[in-house]
Amino acid sequence: MRKNKRPRRSEPEQAAGNGVLDRRLFLTGSAVAIASAALPDKARAAEPLPVQPWMKTPGAPFTPYGQPSKYANKVARVVSSIPGTTGTGTSRTPHHLLDGMITPNGLHFERHHNGVPDINPEAHRLLIHGLVNRPLVFTLEALMRYPMESRIAFIECAGNSALLYQKEPAQLGVQPIHGLLSCAEWTGVRLATLLEEAGVDPRAQWILAEGADSAGMSRSVPLAKAMGDALIAIYQNGEPVRPSNGYPMRLLLPGYEGNMNVKWLRRIKLTEAPTMTKDETSKYTILQNDGKSLQFCFTQEAKSVITRPSPGLTMGAPGLYEITGLAWSGYGKIAKVEVSADGGASWALAALQEPVLPMAVTRFRSPWRWDGGPATLQSRATDDSGYVQPSRAKLIADRGARGNYHFNGIASWGVAQGGEVKHVYA
Amino acid sequence: MRKNKRPRRSEPEQAAGNGVLDRRLFLTGSAVAIASAALPDKARAAEPLPVQPWMKTPGAPFTPYGQPSKYANKVARVVSSIPGTTGTGTSRTPHHLLDGMITPNGLHFERHHNGVPDINPEAHRLLIHGLVNRPLVFTLEALMRYPMESRIAFIECAGNSALLYQKEPAQLGVQPIHGLLSCAEWTGVRLATLLEEAGVDPRAQWILAEGADSAGMSRSVPLAKAMGDALIAIYQNGEPVRPSNGYPMRLLLPGYEGNMNVKWLRRIKLTEAPTMTKDETSKYTILQNDGKSLQFCFTQEAKSVITRPSPGLTMGAPGLYEITGLAWSGYGKIAKVEVSADGGASWALAALQEPVLPMAVTRFRSPWRWDGGPATLQSRATDDSGYVQPSRAKLIADRGARGNYHFNGIASWGVAQGGEVKHVYA
């Protein structure tokens, strides 16, 4: 009966069909009351709270390096490796259980080609050679004397979301489908600083970057990128880069496909032309319908994905929900994200969480009044170059469905009558 | 001899005495060459790099939740607890070994009054009561339906840097002296949302916030702050808040002294006046020379500290170094940081790492050409309210030396002839 005692409030207007509300609901205090009015009633609070056992005895001692709660043990990466190996495959970030823009280091996705090398940093070296005036070798200690720079940047595997090339929607959730994406604050030395010191021969147009893993992961990178915003990253979210992310140093190429951000970096060779390594010929090319492949597709184009609601998270009672997710572009900042609850028939602007940074993920949020009936949830990102995330149909019409890499089309979650959420094509 | 082959470059001008160079050295590619020219020569690279053992065998398998390298095991918190206890005391962030603005969750500082409770989130409740129209009880699950908000915010213990009240400079480094400060991205529900739903009685001017630890940590907070930017934080750097930081939920009061950001939050009571809890009367007040105490000093004022060079990190050969550190203010954004190498006789502007966010730490960097002789390094923060971090002498002249809390004076690292770095007063 408490509901009747509340002052009547005007109903928030729909910003798009099937219950998507104006994003400014989240930006004004008063509107929040509208939101909460639509949430299920809370328990009455006539009784004092019970005194729990953990309030009656001293708690656990301090630890030098902290860990998550044992009750949060589902907040973990899912691992899949190629049969017969333990270290060739992927682990994926559980975005349906996370919020914010930072991926904590323990949950950053991994893509390894032959496991995680156990590198002694004192023995590790970084060689810069090829078309340079002075080949140079750096220890980690030497690198740490150089001026540093930090940037919050996403890394996305070129193979992320590849399941959407399939004819039928894979009956999986956001983690296995879209979990090869993470975002961290990386700190390190600009590669340009080291290349200037080595002295770049005018004939050099490319670099080869090689990892110290036993797969010898190697990619060619245009010199312009190397002289631009490329970093030799030494720190990840403040602490030394994790072994699974390249300890003691990795290449960071903001916006470029994941594998080019070579982990365990040991060698940069300046060259006239791309080296045509195994990793850029037998893999990481986009096969088209005519049997030809697109090579050297470096930049991850604008994309977004709704992380909640998403498959595996069942809806509760009808009422107000927050639709939230991540948007990113390798070409710059996210300019806007639109959300639809009717499969793209109508769209409303989502609220973007500040700070909105170039080549970083942007968290978006949109209020949604679910009426308990069917809905198809979609998000569509636009970056500050004006590029708009395409529909799945358009992407496949343009490129074919054999590409395997760089899928950035719009993804759809279907909400059924009753609240089950499934991956659908729409 | 390689040096002679280099084109002659103009010497960078000093921006302040004793070798502090212009911050723009770090912002321009060409200047970087000047920097590197001042660094020790690199090893010649005539030989190919050795092939290390980790390149010859498959690496380690994937893991659901990652950990740091065993070689980085010194990157850990230092723990001190009151004799006879294991959970009453502090652990401190190793800022001398970190870089960037984010503190990873495993290294966020801790201050507990009776250990870390092992809270089952399904049994945990948040009660909102007192001067409200409708007392409410929230489960974690209910809270997670609400609109969320993220912000990157520092938390600093009111007792951080208290050693600088001592007559003689403690012979310790940045971690034990200044390590009760960390910065993370926090995501949660605005407290205002919940208070609006409960309906605030016009007589209410304060809230009491109580934790579910066995110390019953409790603080009074002005209602204006609670209705402002206060969050019920559920996520820390993307993942569920760590037990040592309040799992399953904590209060976040951006800019306010650490203990008010009550961990393991179980109860918010709206009151007419402050509750005068043990934690705001017997502790967390600033004792002055006349024997009276300042109470309810909530906001952490503008402050900065140089994290490198710092005691424990011995300088190498003379030449170019980066002076780097952190600056923050509970009143807003950092407007500028100045650096001195001559004990405050002259100052130069440091470069500020973007993004510069309110109530978050800002990383600053300044190039410094160390001539091998004695130097006294200092940093001085100014926030966007115009407030300037005071000298230690001025702070103590104004407030006395018995305060124990809120020390935000300028700290000094002395570099001796030969490169040893020590804590000094200057």
How would you describe this structure to a colleague?
The structure is a homodimer of 426-residue chains. The first copy, chain A, is mainly beta. Helix content of chain A is 10%, strand content 30%. The first copy, chain A, contains seven helices and 26 strands. A five-stranded mixed β-sheet of chain A has the order 7-6-15-10-11. In chain A, strands 8, 9, 12, 13 and 14 form a five-stranded antiparallel β-sheet that branches. In chain A, a hairpin with a 7-residue loop joins β20 and β21. The longest helix of chain A has 9 residues, at 29-37. The two termini of chain A are 41 Å apart. Residues 1-9 of chain A have low confidence and may be disordered. Chains A and B meet through α2, β3, β4, β6 and β7 of A and α2, β3, β4, β6 and β7 of B.
Which radius of gyration of chain A do the C-alpha atoms yield?
A: 24 Å
The total count of helices of chain A amounts to 7
Mean pLDDT across all amino acids of chain A: 92
- Low-pLDDT ranges of chain A: 1-9
- Major sheet summary line of chain A: 5 strands, mixed
Spatial order of strands in the largest sheet of chain A: 7-6-15-10-11
Task: State the largest interface.
Answer: A-B, 134 and 134 residues
> How far is it from the N-terminal to the C-terminal residue of chain A, by CA?
41 Å
Q: Helix- and strand-based class of chain A?
A: mainly beta
Helix content of chain A: under 10%
Number of strands of chain A: 26
Q: How much of the sequence of chain A is in beta strands? A: 25-35%
Oligomer: homodimer
